[in-house]
Design brief:
The chain has one helix at residues 42-49; strands at residues 16-20, 26-30, 36-39. The protein is an alpha+beta fold. It has a three-stranded antiparallel sheet with strand order 1-2-3, covered by helices on one side. Strand 1 (16-20) and strand 2 (26-30) form a beta hairpin. The chain is elongated.
């Protein structure tokens, strides 16, 4: 019988913040600032974050 180790419960989830900058553009940015971008609409920013 082969034993298989269950998946680790320490999954690292990434938090992406979505909001508008002072120019009114939609911004999505990873909480640590590692990546992000400017978007035309909120829907596009959310799609990027997912």
């Amino acid at each position: 019988m082969k034993l298989v180790e269950p998946p680790s419960c320490t999954s690292t989830s990434t938090i992406v913040l979505i909001g508008r900058n002072h120019r009114g553009q939609w911004v999505a940015q990873e909480q640590n600032g590692l990546y992000g971008g400017l978007f035309v609409s909120r829907a596009q920013a959310v799609k990027y974050a997912l």
